Amino acid sequence: MYDPTVARLTYRALLGRRRALILGALPLLLIAISIVVRALAGADDQTASDLLGGLALATMVPIIGVIAGTGAIGPEIDDGSVVYLLSKPVKRPTIIFTKLIVAIAVTMVFSALPTLIAGYILNGNGQQIAVAYTVAALVASIAYAAIFLLLGTVSRHAVVFGLVYALVWEALFGSLVSGARTLSVQQWALAVAQKVSGGDMVTSDVALPTATVLLAVVTVLATWYAGQKLRSLTLAGEE
Amino acid sequence: MTTLSIDHVSRWFGNVVAVNDITMTIGPGVTGLLGPNGAGKSTLINMMGGFLAPSTGTVTLDGQPVWRNESIYKHIGIVPEREAMYDFLTGREFVVANAELHGLGAKAAQKALATVEMEYAQDRKIQTYSKGMRQRVKMASALVHNPSLLLLDEPFNGMDPRQRMQLMDLLRKMGDEGRTVLFSSHILEEVEQLAWHIEVVVAGRHAASGDFRKIRRLMTDRPHRYLVRSSDDRALAAALIADPSTSGIEVDLTEGALHIQAVDFGRFTTLLPRVARDQGIRLLTVSPSDESLESVFSYLVAA
């Protein structure tokens, strides 16, 4: 199911100079803000939770997910270089699964790790806040990578759709319409984080069992469907 | 022996029919797929390579379907027309990756790089390569698993004459070895120099198939139109129309020229200068007025 050559090509494409700069910018911004906040306001659990929930989990993780998920396959389909993967006796679902693993790993490294560092800077992991949000970022990385990898497979405008989902649906609708919150990767991840923290600092609108099932179903379905789409991917000619 | 069979294949995109009920069999040796730009060659090659489903009909390789059948790529090598090819890798890394995807190692990659004579630049990034170098590395990636069928879409585009000759030699060798090699081109001379057999596609339809010489004769025997200016148009027209190689001459007074339709190309090209010399007429302009490839092809379709 996992092809090391496909993984190597995907890592190199994803961590190319320009994309690595974009991937690195947001985590650095989060850490810089955390340092400033800690210096100005001191260690405060509520501030730490607000910053990690509002900036790290609600904004940074989905954006990194969009860049890594769509970037793992979208550009290759756009420029046609995916033909070198498709013209090989390698099962298409293997290509998708491998790219998913790479997208998850990249999203985790560029979102969960900085979340942990920022959490320790903000309040030294008081009330398990840093660890709880890190777990949420890890869990969300898996689902985001799968959703955005599927978007990258089916649409040429995957980045736009991904950002609309991440920023408009999750951030805007999520705060206005309660129903939207149920269908939000962020809330599912928060349900897991709530369990980890055990306190009232991290809360979710979705119960843990529902969240776990939805996370698993969305990840598996998105990956399966992306594999199917790649099997019948059409490479239109130049004509 | 590898045979690619295209059986009553059509492909349409919305209301546009790109390929219209084509049936052909491509066997060992070098076959040229000839047609003007936009004729449907790339669509056809994409269907042969399993990257596009036919709307109707089937494409099979030795009886095996090509569409949605990954295992078929053990036998097929593909050189796509598009330029993009993991530009951030070196030539060697690219060919090694292609070898690995076939379950092969660096040794097979090195052999393929040697075949296309790209060892000297193998450690440079692909983004620094010229068009011809890219083409050769693409070729190496297609040859790495020793395929019995090689599909090349406009392989000579953008190559300089020396590179073109090298690639032609290589493809000829592949054909001599008994591989099935199919390449597309819109340039008659390329096909003439390389292909043993040609398939002509015009406006999505299969216009001609067979030995190149037969088709070439069809092409040269068609009525040719010329625009001729001379020191005495009327006298020249009178002398030319007496010969059976011309079927019609119009004296165009406003342009000050003759529009001549010749039915016997070979005979007319020797007749014109001879008649002019004998009559003491000076030829000022002799230019074919319908030599575009499209007119050649449309004649073929009608023939």
Structural features, described:
Chain B: Residues 4-228 form the ABC transporter domain. Chain B: Belongs to the ABC transporter superfamily. Chain B: InterPro entries: AAA+_ATPase (IPR003593), ABC_transporter-like_ATP-bd (IPR003439), ABC_transporter-like_CS (IPR017871), P-loop_NTPase (IPR027417). Chain B: This is ABC transporter ATP-binding protein. Chain B: Keywords: ATP-binding, Nucleotide-binding, Transport. The complex is a heterodimer of chains A (239) and B (303). With 239 residues, chain A is an all-alpha fold. Chain A has one domain (4-231). Chain A is 80% helix and 0% strand. Chain A has helices at residues 4-14, 17-41, 45-71, 74-79, 83-86, 92-123, 129-154, 158-176, 178-182, 185-197, 208-231. Chain A is globular and about 55 Å long. The two termini of chain A are 35 Å apart. The model of chain A has no long low-confidence stretch (mean pLDDT 90). Chain B is of the alpha/beta class and 303 residues long. Chain B has two domains: 4-215, Rossmann fold; 221-302, Alpha-Beta Plaits (2-Layer Sandwich). Helices cover 36% and strands 29% of the residues of chain B. Chain B has ten helices and 14 strands. In chain B, α2 (91-101) crosses α3 and α3 packs across α4. Chain B starts with a strand and ends with a helix. The relative contact order of chain B is 0.14. The model of chain B has no long low-confidence stretch (mean pLDDT 88). The chains are: A mainly alpha (239), B alpha/beta (303). Chain A binds chain B through residues 3-6, 8-9, 12-13, 16, 79-81, 83-92, 231-239, and chain B through 13, 18, 37-43, 45-46, 49-53, 68, 70-74, 76, 78, 80-82, 84-86, 88-89, 97-98, 100-103, 141, 153.
